Amino acid sequence: MSLRIDRDHNRFREIVKGRIKKDFRRYVSKGEMVGRQNGKLISIPVPQIDLPRFKYGKNQAGGVGQGAGEAGDAVDPDKAGPGQGAGDQPGQHMVEVDVTLEELAAMLGEELELPNIQPKGARSIQDRKDRYTGVRPTGPESLRHLHRTFRRALKRQISSGVYDPDNPVIIPIRDDMRYRARRTSPDPRADAVVFYLMDVSGSMGDEQKEIVRIETFWIDAWLRHQYGDLDIRYIVHDAAAREVDRETFFHLRESGGTKISSAYTLLDRILTEEYNPADWNVYAFHFSDGDNWGSGDTEVSLRLLSDSILPISNQFAYGQVESPYGSGQFLKDLRSYFKGADNLVTSHIPDKDHIYDSIKEFLGKGR
Amino acid sequence: MSLPLELAAARDEIREVARGLGLDFFEVVYEVVTWEEMNQVAAYGGFPVRYPHWRFGMEFERLAKSHAYGLSKIYELVINNNPSIAYLQESNELVDQKLVMAHVYGHSDFFKNNVFFAHTNRRMVDAMAQHAAQVRRHMDRQGQDRVEAFLDLALSLEHLIDPHRVFLEARTAPIPVTEEEPVDSPVQRIRAKEYLDSFVNPPEFLEEQRRKLAEDKLRRRRFPERPERDVLLFLAQHAALDRWQRELLEIVREEAYYFLPQMQTKIANEGWASFWHSKIMTERILDDSEVVDYADHSAGVFAMPPGQFNPYKVGLELWRDIERRWDRGQFGKDWEECDDYERRMAWDTKAMRGREKIFEVRRMYNDLTFIDTFLTPDFCDRSRLFVYKYNERTRRLEISDREFLHIKEQLLFQLTNAGHPVISVEDGNYENRGELLLTHDHQGVDLDLQYARDTLQNLAKIWGRPCHVVTRSGDKERLLSHDGTEFRER
Fold this sequence. Notes:
The structure holds two protein chains of two kinds.
Chain A: H1 6-16, E1 28-37, E2 40-49, E3 63-66, H2 101-111, E4 126-136, H3 146-159, E5 179-188, E6 191-199, H4 206-227, E7 231-237, E8 241-244, H5 246-251, H6 260-274, E9 280-288, H7 294-309, E10 315-321, H8 329-337, E11 344-349, H9 355-363
Parallel strand pairs in A: 6-7, 6-9, 9-10, 10-11
Antiparallel strand pairs in A: 1-2, 4-5, 7-8
Chain B: H1 5-20, E1 28-33, H2 35-43, H3 54-68, E2 78-79, E3 84-89, H4 94-113, H5 124-142, H6 144-155, H7 197-200, H8 203-220, H9 231-238, H10 243-264, H11 266-285, H12 291-301, H13 311-327, H14 332-337, H15 341-346, H16 354-364, H17 367-374, H18 377-383, E4 385-391, E5 396-401, H19 404-415, E6 423-430, E7 435-440, H20 449-463, E8 467-473, E9 476-482, E10 487-489
Parallel strand pairs in B: 1-3, 7-8
Antiparallel strand pairs in B: 2-3, 4-5, 6-7, 8-9, 9-10
């Protein structure tokens, strides 16, 4: 059903997506509502644009609340204080909600995107696009197809004998009118391949591996939901690397030392052999606890990244999981070595609660 | 659409009960809507039509999402208009519809009789539609982007109106001051004999009188003569604007004034409507099969999750408290002076003036005066109110205490000017360069600097010349300035 407010709503969506009024993006805040997924609280993104106005600095103000509690107890900052709204405003009533996996992926979809994607290759990522491809006998005057209309009128006049070559006046009638017609068609855009690399060495405890699996699972679920037709490859490594299928990737338990270079070497080999950078958008997500074996290997890894992988990648994402054993040195090395490289994104994931933030760091819009 | 028979019957019954209880309301027109329409109407502030602007779409998205995921739902929605218009969601159960109707008659009574609403436009539905048509026409002529950009500027200033002007018709321009310009007169001496003159009119006195006269004269040349709280009015009258821009400013201003009394009476108004719906429903309307659902839904509306302030709940309890106190004669000098706890608890003079009192209060009070007068230490105690503050050390908001005076102070502060900083136009010709000087009446809480800076920029775009605001940051006086492209701070 179409509503009057759709126009305002579309306008708002356009602003949020940054298509119009780009300067407004800095006012867009990621408001969130809280929902529940399998007993775990998740947040539903509700973008809000806050028009600037004179208001009190937040941190100095206080408020009045109601209920139990001792002095010093924290109160929820976003929900306190008497309403700013009008007396006619809706009485609202909060409940918690269960969200299905699919809904969640769709919600994420509004927040995330594959950054920096380029039109490449023949086979494609599907995207929808409206095109004026045909004509039809009815439509708004603004879409009138002058040429076709004229031609039909001419044909009619000639065939009915009204046409006079000495006085070539063409007068279209209602039946002659032709209008441009729009068709929504899949728009082939680009080929993309996504690599997931996971460190499965001994220093990655079960908890760390679980964090990585949850995060890759979500990124994976979302990418599949959003882009459908992607090449997805999985690589696990400890001191040696090998390619595995999806099932193995999510269930494998290994142990051993850590040589990050092994994974990068394998990645590099697969890329050179199978994916021509002219045809493919390349995305890689690497997760590790950052406890690489010796600085020699780190150097090799960094060189591999800078010489062969980064130059042909749209984005290389490195997520470091905090582990009780690891020094986590690799993240620091990466950050200092590639200062300012815009297709390298790093993220630090201290615990499960930060998975969502980390996904947003990797795939967040407007970076 | 006319109401289904079942609803129409419920409405007639409830209306009669409400009348019988002494409520005096506008006629209420109920519209049955789908949940999507409900969210649309709510996004439009209750109106069927508003001018095109993305922020309504933003509100719609928030409401629709929170509805779709079952996080919250809108129960009642009524607008101050004659007749009042209220919306019923078609998917609600009958008992909910009854609750909403009973609640709505309470609101409509409040709209009609509360003095702060006396000058609101009771044909606002028409006015809003008119505004929508005006804005659309300007969009057709000027282009959507230009008009929307200007609306964005104007809306960022929409709180800069004079809350005391609700007693005047917001539409009418203020009466021009026709005071006669006093002639430059020499200082008036007090008549005295010559030899006493230097005692009766000592030179210091004459000097001071001269200074005062000069100051007066200077003040009269100031522009505006007195600080003007209604910044939007000042801009609409004096900024160098195109006609269509002036018209947009006036639209934003008129709508801001229309909504102002609702902001000023949130607690009293919601409390009043809740007081009556609960009375009407529990004493007269509910049948046995509906009691449990009613109680369940009421519990939802009046819930007070930890740390939240629910105006419905606090308002309702205050009204009940007032009725109880005046029924038992707990007011006046004797009551105030009694500090014997036992006697106070048992105090009952059988005055039975509660009903009379609450009707009087609903006519005369807004939230500020309502809280100021009727919030008592007993009440705070019983309702377990507390004050929270930002703790610099832990970087979070924390409960600071339960002192009555602090609670009241904090509430009154939040209710003053509907929680917005008090800002007025001080000088429209600052430094004799046609710049605009505003002052912020600093009451202990600083302005949010980032926001102030962007707001000043918007102001400067409307005024067309640099704009300044005097405020304080901690103990230091600050002058924030923006000339439309660059921000400065002194």
